[in-house]
Amino acid sequence: TDLAHIRNFSIVAHIDHGKSTLADRLIQSTNTVAERDMKEQLLDSMDIERERGITIKANTVRIDYVAQNGETYVLNLIDTPGHVDFAYEVSRSMRAVEGSLLVVDSTQGVEAQTLANVYQAIDANHEIVPVLNKIDLPASEPERVKEQIEDVIGIDASDAMLVSAKSGIGIPETLEAIVQRLPAPKGDRAAPLKAMLVDSWYDSYLGVIVLVRIMDGVLKKNDRVKFMSNGTIHQVDRIGVFRPAMQPVDELGPGEIGFITASIKQVRDTRVGDTITHEKKGADTPLPGFKPSQPVVFCGLFPVDSAEFEDLRDAIEKLALNDASFSFEMETSAALGFGFRCGFLGLLHLEVIRDRIEREYNIDLITTAPSVIYHIYMRDGELIELHNPADMPDLSKVDHLEEPRIKATILVPDEYLGDVLKLCQDRRGIQMDLTYAGTRAMVVYDLPLNEVVFDFYDRLKSVTKGYASFDYQLTGYRQDNLVKMSILVNDEPVDALSTMVHRDRAEMRGRAMCEKLKDLIPRHMFKIPIQAAIGGKVIARETLAALRKDVTAKCYGGDATRKRKLLDKQKAGKKKMRQFGKVDIPQEAFISALKMD
Ligand code: GTP
């Protein structure tokens, strides 16, 4: 296809504003898929994504569209991930296209994620077409939302498309706007090959599938190609496009988006943002701005039943094959035995992986406290990257400690602003900016990532009744007064509950954790002290009283089935507990103990 007849675009939207519905509708109305093959939410293929209503892996589709001028255009849609954890992947896929549809729910307005993603689109020099969705709803306020887009984002919204992705209103106009308003891609067919690796994933039949955008040159079947970030050479064995099913093509030229397979074994061998060129007569310099995405949140995953360790290894290895940003290494914990220290892009990423292990592989897990990477400057000048508070070196050898900080953007209706400011303040935040757009406030905070990885997002949702939206970016490292807090249960340290805390908050945190654990740990036949300590010094303490009566005693005289039920329930509960010395600690204690309310 010649460049003038190609349009490449992505859809930028906040969760639930209708990105998938719009994509489905664009595909359907151009007859890309036969009606009967049209599954709902075609682009969100994974179960978890569907269940949680979020799009994780970027997907793509090529649509043929006959425009009003009678000419046929190729429209390539790249579906970008919608969550903050995947900001880097979003930024790469933005570089692969020239324009964006900015979808805003016209009953809701602009949200923090819309902002973050639209700024990435602006950074990538996109032409942006605003689309006001859900105009079929009585609560739709297109004029107000147009104004808001202009005020908050600063782009012209006077020509915004008025759309109902659900009922199909405005879809033909939107297709026409894609052709008329978005620029055609540029590229040089005669130049050495430069293809951007936009995404990759594992397919059990075909192996690793690599999504590419050709910038310059031509890519053909059987070409020998080089991945410039690591110099590996592969032979292309399949080349094609998504419609959205895979369809082979002879070649991909400048401006085109498609896939290749090349006997690549693992997704880990491919890096989003990498440049692919020919082995011979290849490009000298890669496309600018490549950096592999790095895990920022770490936690331990341990099987509840230690006999399932090998199954867990198997599950983790399989998941890692398909996810280059998920890292793992074996870990032994005095308390939990054998498990894995795993690295994630963020908390959502952590939750998704943990859920998949539990659900798809049927392994009950204990998840230890999530931690960020601390930089520890030793007195002898060495710099240690600490991923696990349990590995904290001897304090006398430590000069100082730095922690990662983020810039958080929160959009919230006026009436909840006070609560949001308090929450940020409580989490050691420094206010950077506060502005208004209509009745909504936009606050920008500088926060320590460690205060956010845990339950910040949950707390934010609860204090704002779900009306706030949140987005963040890592900004760098800063020194602070941080210490390792250990938890002792029945005088035994439980390493999996160690956390890094700010010195000024250690007492408060320690007390809260001991109280929580006291509620979470079932009573035993003996008294159990629960303590928080820094170094050797106990800073908080609770005592769990001993159990006296038989649990079935209260069913005394009751019928036998009830009694059996109670015992069964106890047994089921037992399975999800681990023994620490003589004490059984239930699975949920490891996560719940850290939540602050
Ligand atoms: P993520 O995939 O989670 O990012 O969400 P999304 O932005 O793709 O939203 P999705 O398309 O899943 O739509 C969210 C909800 O809004 C669904 O329940 C849709 O049925 C509904 N919806 C989408 N478009 C419209 C519309 O035009 N009108 C109405 N009434 N509902 C819509």
TrEMBL record:
Q: Which GO terms describe its molecular function?
A: GTP binding; GTPase activity; guanosine tetraphosphate binding; ribosome binding; translation elongation factor activity
- Reaction equation(s) it catalyzes: GTP + H2O = GDP + phosphate + H(+)
Q: Does the keyword Ligase apply?
A: no
Q: Please give the chief subcellular localization of this protein.
A: membrane
Q: Which residues bind GTP?
A: D16, H17, G18, K19, S20, T21, N133, K134, I135, D136
Q: Which GO terms describe its cellular component?
A: plasma membrane
Q: Which GO terms describe its biological process?
A: positive regulation of translation
Where is the protein localized? Answer: Cell membrane
Q: What is its EC number?
A: 3.6.5.n1
Indicate the segments forming the Tr-type G domain, all copies: 4-186
Known Pfam families for this protein? Answer: EFG_C (PF00679), GTP_EFTU (PF00009), GTP_EFTU_D2 (PF03144), LepA_C (PF06421)
PROSITE patterns this protein is in? Answer: G_TR_1 (PS00301), G_TR_2 (PS51722)
Please report which protein family the annotation says this sequence is part of: Belongs to the TRAFAC class translation factor GTPase superfamily. Classic translation factor GTPase family. LepA subfamily.
Among HAMAP family, the record links this protein to: LepA (MF_00071)
Function text: Required for accurate and efficient protein synthesis under certain stress conditions. May act as a fidelity factor of the translation reaction, by catalyzing a one-codon backward translocation of tRNAs on improperly translocated ribosomes. Back-translocation proceeds from a post-translocation (POST) complex to a pre-translocation (PRE) complex, thus giving elongation factor G a second chance to translocate the tRNAs correctly. Binds to ribosomes in a GTP-dependent manner.
Concerning NCBIfam families, the annotation shows: lepA, small_GTP
From the Swiss-Prot or TrEMBL record, give the protein name. Elongation factor 4
Which organism is this entry from? Answer: Thalassovita litoralis
